[in-house]
Specification:
By secondary structure, the protein is α/β, with parallel strands linked by helices. The protein has helices at about 25-35, 55-70, 95-100, 110-125, 130-135, 150-160, 175-180, 180-190, 210-215, 220-230, 255-260, 265-285, 295-310; strands spanning about 15-20, 45, 75, 140-145, 170. About 45% of the residues lie in helices and about 5% in strands. It is globular, with a radius of gyration of 21 Å.
Length: about 325
């Protein structure tokens, strides 16, 4: 892992280089090794969907301090909706789903939630960044580093993006260039003297494993039940956040939560019976309030959380 051993990267010097840090194992190791090799890095961007696991948010300041010690500019960016029509304003993927009575697009077989909540806010930040504007004005491109490793799972993700051409970005996949898998990434992070982060994934995501769901705190489980209950009247081709049942798990996370007694059945029933109706009433009242004074979806979620905590006590 010697520094300055990547002569083939000479073309990167003098070009804006942006690293996408997803707060997980792969992208963390990518940034550590990239810096150790003495390669240029202009800025690190982290897109916050608002529904990362508690462990992931706890890791955020740990690596931010590492970046500060290495004098790396870094920013957390978020998708900010601008038009709310008659809706209460929302600022996270969870709030978006509850507002529109839907599930994340991955539950329907799409990927627009990642594009909307991760890629778009990063691209918007770069669009207002002077080094990017200057290189684009000269007909050049910004280099964007993406942390896909060489494991089979990331190979499938890489294959999905392979061949993607942008007028604004050159996409680089350093871990694949180095032929690093997830184990190599974890070892590199430990060698740096840092704890290995938890897998970075939204707790509303179809990709969440049953073992991961079982470690979620009760407040996350309740909101999962709420999201599926809110979307239920509009679901025709999918069962829930996990989409379709398999031999290992049902398509509905609520069903899994009930079957494993992760929440009391009475509490699940109360959420399903009452919360969606209360939310619809809240949205109807909010629609009559001027936008500048309108309560946000976060206000209703805080009220929901407080209410179910009192019932559970």
């Amino acid at each position: 892992m010697a520094a300055n051993d990547d002569a083939c990267h000479d073309d990167l010097f003098g070009v804006p280089v942006v690293a996408a840090w997803g707060m997980g194992v792969d992208s963390t190791a990518m940034i550590i090794e990239w810096v150790a090799r003495g390669l240029p890095l202009s800025v690190v961007l982290t897109a916050d969907t608002g529904v990362e696991r508690e462990e992931t948010y706890a890791y955020l300041p740990i690596f931010q301090r590492w970046m500060d010690r290495h004098h790396i500019e870094h920013h957390v960016v978020r998708y900010i909706p601008k038009r709310f029509k008659h809706w209460p304003p929302y600022f996270s993927l969870l709030e978006n789903c509850l507002t529109n009575a839907t599930l994340p697009s991955i539950s329907y077989g799409g990927h627009s939630c990642s594009a909307k909540w991760k890629i778009q806010p990063q691209d918007q930040w770069v669009a207002g960044w002077s080094p990017a504007q200057q290189i684009w004005a000269r007909g050049g491109k910004v280099v964007k580093l993406i942390g896909y490793d060489s494991s089979p799972a990331d190979s499938r993700r890489y294959a999905h993006r392979e061949g993607h051409v942008s007028d604004l970005y050159d996409y680089r996949y350093p871990l694949r260039e180095w032929q690093w898998d997830r184990d190599a990434c974890a070892a590199r992070i430990r060698a740096e003297g840092l704890p290995v982060p938890h897998k970075s994934a939204c707790w509303l995501c179809l990709a969440q494993k049953t073992s991961e769901l079982m470690t979620l705190p009760p407040w996350c489980l309740r909101l999962i039940v709420l999201v599926e209950a809110r979307a239920a009247p509009r679901l025709q081709t999918v069962e829930g956040l996990w989409r379709k049942s398999t031999r290992e798990r049902p398509g509905s996370m609520t069903r899994f939560i009930r079957e494993r007694s992760l929440l009391p059945s009475a509490e699940i029933d109360a959420i399903i019976a009452g919360a969606p109706i209360d939310l619809i009433d809240f949205q109807r009242v909010a629609a009559e309030i001027p936008l500048a004074e309108r309560p946000t979806m976060r206000d209703w979620i805080d009220r929901f959380n407080a209410g179910v905590e009192r019932l559970a006590a």
